[in-house]
Amino acid sequence: MTRKIFNSIIIVAGTILLSSVIIIMGCLYNYFEDVRERGLKDELKLSMAAVEDDGVHYLEKVKSDRYRITWIAADGTVIYDTAANSEEHENHLERMEVKSALENGEGESNRYSDTLFEKTMYYAKRMNDGSVLRISTSSATVGLLVLGMLQPILIVVVIALIMSGILAGRLSKRIVKPLNDLNLEKPLENDTYEEISPLLLRISRQNKEIKAQVKAIQQRAAEFEQITGCMNEGLVLMDKDGIILSINPAANRIFSLDESCVGRDFLTVYRDHEMNLCIKNAIESGHCEIQQTRFGREYQFDASRIESDDEMIGIILLIFDITERVQAERNRREFTANVSHELKTPLQGIIGSAELIENGMVKQEDLPRFIGHIRKEASRLVILVGDIIRLSQLDEKAELIKEEINLLQLVEETTENLKDIAKDKNIEISIDGKQVIIYGVRKLLYEIIYNLCDNAIKYNIYGGNIKISITKNNQNAVLTVADTGIGIPQEHLDRVFERFYRVDKSHSKETGGTGLGLSIVKHAVAYHHGKIDIESKVNNGTTITIKFPM
Ligand code: ADP
Fold it and tell me: Is 214 in the same domain as 312?
């Protein structure tokens, strides 16, 4: 910019200087030529008067370096020439100025030397006797004048160019400085040339637009970070080369990484062959899923190719915790297998006994025992199917009708239904507590109390006792069922709430247990957002405490 301004100033200054010199020289030359012409004419007039009086004598006396006077006869022969002998001259009749003077009384012409550096001006006039007197003078032409003045002109031009250079340098700097000092952050606050005001106005407008766009982008980025930060699912965004662009806290946890991994190659920070293949697969086919176990939990990794205008621009990796789903699936499979097994055993017993009777292989006196066995197994099946139905209803998580329930009253009703089997084992049931009202599902609360008391009887010793208490503490209604039975070994305590889990299978079957009672209790308590605690000592009894939030 500075150089351009500098060059422009130099060119303009040079052009002005040159044209000034040419114009001035042209004007001066014309002026002096005019003066010379007038002087020449005056001189001729004076010479004519003198020649008419004195003839050749006058001309012989006039010896001038500046002027040359030629006296030409009417026939063109030179009578006298102050510059040379008349004999040496050819006939002048054809000379333009002479010809014109003879015809019109006066004539003039200019002739140039071969080199064009000398110009000779002729002026002729006819005298009274018909002869012509001609005066001429030579002078340098403009070309010679310029050549003669070349040195001073060059000196002036060089000085002028140096001065212009210095001036142009300073000027260009002065012009550019305010532009360099412009504050483009606040364009309207600049005090500079009026001419660039529209530009500054446009910059100011664009600045505002850029600021608004940056703000919108930042806001969107913050929103994105907030959303992904709250996600339970892991999210990793990579560019087309697998460089991590963004990773949310959940993904950092799953891969044991931190924020510093952003900008690095994902496959170098998480070296795993299966993952490597999955991402390559997603790049090639668009999508790939794998499952892996990390820190004891099951995860599903979904890698997908991101495209824009049919061109791959990145990869998105979503990570889902599917531990519960996998567990539920496993439980479902186990449950199905267990149910089939549990159903098959009594059915086989029934079929076996029935076949023996049918084939007449049972003696008459053994018949009641076999029929009794069939009835017992069939009853077990009914109880089992009942428990399975109850459990699957709880699994459905259907919304059941809740009502205010007096827990003490419900315990009394339930134990009333169990009093016969308790009596069979000479077991004493004592109920202690106050009236506690909770908001719950009557059917489920009945199941809880029934199963706990049923177990307390089933796994009790002959003549033992059961203590049921209902209390209230810290916003909880607390139901405790304590027995003096066989107890549960410590290593089984965690598992007795699993479906079909029995500590002693034969004992459980003997007492008509299905292995589903405590599972139903667990689900029913969870439905009421309650908590179960179990304490037990082998041969010393079991205490199960359930807290219902009120
Ligand atoms: P079951 O129908 O076999 O009783 P449950 O789910 O009710 O099944 O109980 C699971 C297992 O827990 C029982 O088989 C039994 O071994 C043990 N158990 C449950 N309650 C008691 C208790 N009060 N005393 C001793 N063992 C118990």
Answer: no
Q: What span, in angstroms and rounded, lies between the C-alpha atoms of 513 and 516?
A: 8
Give the three-state DSSP class for 272.
Answer: coil
Q: What is the pLDDT of residues 73-119, one digit of tens each?
A: 888 888 888 876 555 578 888 889 999 999 999 999 998 887 768 88
Residues 108/100, Cβ–Cβ less than 8 Å:
yes
- Do 391 and 469 fall within a single domain? no
Nearest CA to ligand 1 atom 4: 513
Domain that holds residue 188: 182-227
Mutate to test the pocket of ligand 1, among 492, 496, 544 (most ligand atoms within 8 A of CB): 496
137, β-bridge pairs: 121
**In 461-550, alpha helices (H):** 505-510, 517-527
In this predicted model, what pLDDT tens digit does every residue of 14-24 receive, in sequence order? 888 888 888 88
**369/389 Cα distance (integer angstroms):** 30
Q: What is the pTM of this model?
A: 0.55
Q: Is residue 214 part of a domain?
A: yes
Q: Which of 342, 455, 457, 525 to mutate to test the pocket of ligand 1 (most atoms within 8 A of CB)?
A: 455
